[in-house]
């Protein structure tokens, strides 16, 4: 059903007019409520658009500086923190996790390397015991349970998407090395110095700028429930222990917590700037955040397979690198199979393509039914690459 297109603000270079057309079509044809998209090419902003509503009641306009929870698009910035530490010689991806986090050696994990955490191959996709939201907000409790647990499958043998646990696992290694939780390390070392409007969690001072996440239509959530009912125990542990959605993410408790896999808040401009660091082989403007070698390591593929958690939602194999997913033959991040990025539950994404020097961020508040490759995101990516 066609709906009206709200006022779209911002700028779009003439060469990329198709991106504006696709952005408008998302509102007219794909149920968009409020959203923003930013595209950088060669380090320059060529598209920076926003429009729609920041709340489900359509009373608050989406503004230039509107922030929104981007779910798993957060994993890219968290991975960036780990790659900064690798680049400084403080973190070895092939060292056992227990080198930095001794308690992690429990339950046969003494030799499990850090790269398995980054590539979702650690076998710790979700906790085996029921884990409540209040417990999820307790960093020490959650990381302690992960350190003690036995993997679901043989670590390293294949990937199984660590939807929420990824941030605690990688984040605790960051904390053990630096003494800082990943959100604070990100702010101190990257977003603060570069002026990037992105945080893990949401500071109280920014609450007034945050968009309200809105559930998919009831018919869609019903379909999702039917799919979840058929999932294997490991997939249920990864995706629904505890259950999370728009209602939870809109609460002050969620926004105040440190969930480095899923509660990053930012603008599309900020997401694009962070992923553009990978696209420009470590550069942000004239500042070097990573060496070219470290930036390249981030997309070091760990082997394509049918993911143990996401496999039910895809009809193809996928390949995760060290913290981000490769575009691959299915083109999740454009036609370059070596492009890479990360999607957030319900639609958002960050994209990095070093060959085309493209960095992109797309954020929205009406969640779709897809864990990845939302039609709105794919329409925008197709439009970005059309003139390239």
Topology:
Blueprint (H helix, E strand, L loop, with lengths): L7 E5 L4 H13 L4 E8 L2 E9 L15 E2 L5 H13 L26 H5 L14 H4 L2 H10 L16 H14 L3 H13 L3 E3 L17 H11 L4 H8 L5 H4 L2 H5 L7 E3 L1 H12 L3 E2 L2 E2 L3 H6 L27 E2 L13 E4 L5 E5 L4 E7 L10 H11 L3
Antiparallel strand pairs: 1-3, 2-3, 2-12, 4-6, 5-6, 7-8, 9-10, 10-11, 11-12
Poorly predicted spans: none
Task: Work out the helicity level.
Answer: 25-40%
CATH architecture: 3-Layer(aba) Sandwich
The count of strands amounts to: 12
> What would the principal axes of the Cα set say about the shape?
globular
Structural class: alpha+beta
Distance between the termini: 31 Å
Q: Quote the beta fraction.
A: 5-15%
What gyration radius follows from the Cα positions, in whole Å?
A: 19 Å
- The total tally of domains equals 1
Question: How many alpha or pi helices?
Answer: 14
Order of helices and strands: EHEEEHHHHHHEHHHHEHEEHEEEEH
Q: Kindly report the name of the CATH homologous superfamily.
A: DD-peptidase/beta-lactamase superfamily
């Amino acid at each position: 059903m066609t709906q009206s297109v709200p006022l779209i603000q911002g700028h779009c270079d003439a060469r990329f007019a198709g991106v504006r057309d696709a952005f408008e079509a998302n509102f007219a044809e794909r149920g968009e409520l409020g959203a923003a998209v930013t595209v950088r090419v060669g380090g320059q902003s060529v598209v920076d658009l926003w429009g729609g509503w920041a709340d489900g009641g359509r009373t608050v306009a989406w503004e230039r500086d509107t922030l929104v929870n981007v779910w798993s698009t957060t994993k890219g910035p968290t991975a960036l923190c780990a790659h900064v530490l690798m680049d400084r010689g403080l973190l070895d991806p092939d060292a056992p996790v227990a080198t930095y986090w001794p308690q992690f050696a429990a339950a046969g994990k003494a030799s499990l390397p850090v790269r398995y955490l980054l590539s979702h191959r650690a076998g710790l996709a979700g906790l085996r015991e029921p884990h409540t939201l209040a417990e999820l907000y307790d960093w020490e409790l959650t990381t302690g349970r992960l350190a003690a647990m036995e993997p679901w499958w043989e670590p390293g043998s294949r990937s199984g998407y660590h939807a929420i646990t990824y941030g605690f696992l990688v984040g605790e290694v960051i904390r053990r090395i630096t003494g800082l939780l990943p959100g604070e390390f990100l702010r101190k070392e990257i977003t603060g110095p570069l002026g990037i409007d992105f945080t893990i969690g949401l500071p109280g001072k920014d609450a007034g700028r945050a968009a309200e996440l809105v559930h998919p239509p009831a018919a869609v959530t019903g379909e999702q429930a039917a799919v979840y009912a058929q999932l294997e125990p490991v997939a249920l542990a990864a995706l629904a222990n505890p259950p999370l959605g728009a209602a939870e993410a809109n609460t002050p408790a969620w926004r105040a917590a440190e969930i480095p896999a899923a509660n990053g808040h930012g603008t599309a401009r900020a997401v694009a700037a962070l992923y553009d660091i990978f696209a420009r082989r470590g550069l942000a403007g004239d500042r070097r955040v990573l060496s070219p070698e470290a930036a390249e390591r981030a997309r070091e593929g760990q082997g394509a397979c049918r993911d143990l958690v996401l496999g039910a939602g895809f009809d193809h194999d996928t390949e995760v690198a060290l913290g981000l997913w490769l575009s691959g033959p299915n083109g999740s991040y454009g036609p370059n199979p070596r492009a890479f990025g990360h999607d957030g539950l319900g639609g958002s994404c960050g994209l990095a393509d070093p060959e085309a020097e493209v960095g992109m961020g797309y954020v929205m508040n009406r969640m779709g039914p897809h864990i990845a490759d939302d039609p709105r995101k794919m329409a925008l990516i197709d439009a970005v690459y059309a003139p390239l």
